[in-house]
Design brief:
Length: 200
């Protein structure tokens, strides 16, 4: 886990849906928050993970927890919002400063290909395809993402999850456990994959 100073990271600026700049820390000032840092808005895997995490939204809302998606660029944002993949507010970190400060790595042109075709990515892509979720290859293909869960007022980081592979994500159980809430949300059915094919 990357070391970081939450008070410093909290000063990073994000662009909200109205185009205004806000400090990251404003998102946890009045309530706990689940911050999902997407690789790209057009990423099929990210769209599926967003829809999976959104299964928790009713329980999060009932517990006074905000669900927020953050992307590294505006490219694909309109299509992402129209697709309704995330049941929460959406921000953009155009400088990618929070991504860097939180240790969300950047791939190189050489390292991205093995990561993109790895088994974890194929498994999640199969889930997305089975759920009718499509994606594209527009935008920054080299950025990875993760999740940050912060309690109200920013006194404690409840989860700091860094993707090792583009197909990595915390489970619904791990998220709800970090927040100390219960949920009836059921995770998407995991496909069975071998080297050639994935099935449900």
């Amino acid at each position: 886990m990357a070391k970081f100073d939450l008070s410093q990271v909290g000063k990073n600026l994000l662009k909200n849906e109205s185009g205004e700049n806000v400090e990251l820390q404003s998102l946890w000032q009045d309530q706990p928050v689940v911050l999902f840092f997407l690789r790209r808005f057009g990423c099929q895997v990210c769209r599926w993970i967003a829809s999976e995490v959104s299964k928790l939204e009713p329980d999060l809302r009932a517990s006074g927890v905000a669900l927020v998606g953050i992307g590294p660029e505006e490219l694909g944002l309109k299509e992402f919002k129209e697709g309704g993949f995330l049941k929460g507010s959406i921000y953009v970190d155009e400088q990618k400063k929070s991504y860097k400060d939180l240790g969300f790595k950047r791939y190189t042109a050489i390292s991205v290909l093995p990561a993109a075709i790895g088994k974890k990515v194929r498994d999640v892509a199969a889930k997305a395809k089975a759920d009718g979720i499509q994606g594209n290859f527009s935008g920054d293909l080299l950025q990875s993402g993760g999740m940050l869960i912060v309690d109200k007022g920013g006194e404690h980081v409840l989860m700091h999850f860094i993707q090792d592979s583009p197909g990595d994500y915390p489970t619904l159980e791990e998220i709800s456990k970090a927040l100390g809430i219960s949920t009836a949300a059921k995770p998407g059915q995991k496909p069975v994959c071998n080297d050639d094919v994935c099935t449900r």
